[in-house]
Amino acid sequence: MRKRSLLLVLTTVVALASLAGSASAGPKTMLTGISGLYNFGPEAMTQSSSAGAQFLRIVIPWRAVAPKNKPDSWNPSDPADPAYNWRETDERFSKAVAAGFIPFGLVTESPAWAERCKPETSVSTCNPDPDAFAEFAHAAAVRYSGNFRGLPRVQYWQPINEPNLSLFFNPQYGENGKPVSADLYRVLLNRFSAAVKAVDPSNLVVGGGLGPVAVRPFTVGPMQFTRQLLCMEGTSKPKKTKGSCEGGVHFDVFDIHPYTTGGPNHKGRGNDVQMGDLGKLQTLLKAAKKAGRIVNSGRSVPLWITEFSWDTKPPDPGGLAMKITSRWIPEAMYRAWQAGVSAFFWYSLYDDPPHPSFKASIQSGLYFAGPTVAENTPKEILFAYRFPFVAYPEKKGLSFWGRTFGGRPGTVSIQTFEKGKWHKVATAKAPPGGIFKGIVKGSAYGADKKGAVRAVFAGEPSLAFKMKPVKEFIHPPFG
Q: Which residues are CB-contacts of 137 (< 8 A; sequence separation ≥ 6)?
């Protein structure tokens, strides 16, 4: 555990140092994580480690931590105020850090007394009071500062999940039919950022966490939402406006959830951001940073994906075939890396428990759900996520890309399958961070769309990547 923790620290330092790198070349590393995890017992921690995850996203439900009714007398900025109940979040953060993971805190679900309208769902936040939101953010940052009652340090913070979706944030549109969610979110994001950075300036705020598609009147498309949030026009021009954007929008990292209705190269409509649309979002973020609309201490704005997945078949009868999912996962990670994404989280660790109707459950886990967490069993896609590897025949030769499990440095063997056996054709060096890439110059292997290539690291092979491509087809991410 000590060696793993030291390696995790080294990998993270290298990753953070590379966040300002050129997106066109791809970042030097890509951190990985798990979202949608609500069990932090030893079995779940072991399974998360086996998936190669470095981050665990941990939800802090404001509504559950805060008192149901606002007390007449209390100090909401004080994490020790007896009106708060932090027991569950304390346990989750403590267990995650003890198991060697980097914790990522997501604040969601405001209490009714802090809301200024009626939420549409039980998990949504409805225009919460910015003062109350900032007070809670301050309390959470103090509690998880690393200097409070022996509780762990949390450096990464995010306010509100998918604020462009009515499922999680309201209102999305005003009475005149114009979108308002981005303007409301801007105020909350700036107040949240100021609150957590006042506790520790090295805290990092992750803004966005946007859902992928526009579905009026329920969602605002992520491109439209981001333009409005940052007061931009098109993908590169700052909008001439006074007022709310003059001081800029304060965050360190931008987050998108590009769930894809198709394969790793699939593009959505103009205001959507699916996996094939990451480039246009990057263009917008770069322009907004250059125009001073985004305010942070870095030279650039790292782009993260903290949710992505496809339901698998089995167990979801409408899910994506396991073999195709196993191929598309490393391809999606590669395309994300090409677009400059420096962190990639899978949603989620294991499937929802069996349900009479799959319409209400998520079956995108890396593990099949067992009767208990200890009885979960790995899916084939676990190994695709743990050790992603792709290879493509090109004019210059056979190109390849991959990421070692856990981002570990070392030597990687590239092998092709010929005449019933695996043959070593190249060696690659993976630096700290685990990204390795190269080309077997002059090799025509795979040009006939036959055969398969794999990588081997520390005695463990990646899944074989077949040379016969899978044609793009439409398929919903949740079956």
A: 107, 157, 159, 191, 192, 195, 196
> Are the C-beta atoms of 151 and 143 separated by less than 8 Å?
yes
Distance CA 362, CA 355 (A): 10
Residue 477 maps to a domain: no
Domain identity same for 301 and 401: no
Domain range for residue 111?
36-307
38: phi then psi, degrees, rounded to nearest 5:
-125, 10
Verify that 267 and 397 share a domain, yes or no. Answer: no
Based on the structure, what is the number of domains in the chain?
Answer: 2
| Residue percentage of the chain with pLDDT more than 70 | 92
**Does the residue 76 lie in any domain?**
yes
Do 126 and 119 contact (CB within 8 A), yes or no?
yes
What is the tens place of the pLDDT at every residue in 200-226? Answer: 999 999 999 999 999 988 999 999 999
18 domain-assigned: no
Provide the CA 38 distance to its chain's centre, in angstroms: 16
DSSP string, 420-466: TEEEEEEEEEE-TTBEEEEEEET--TTTTS--EEEEEETTEEPPPEE
Q: Which CA distances in Å does 437 have to 180, 361, 400, 401?
A: 44, 37, 5, 4
Question: What is the pTM for the complete model shown?
Answer: 0.92
Q: Which helix (H) or strand (E) holds 159?
A: strand 156-159
DSSP at 342: E
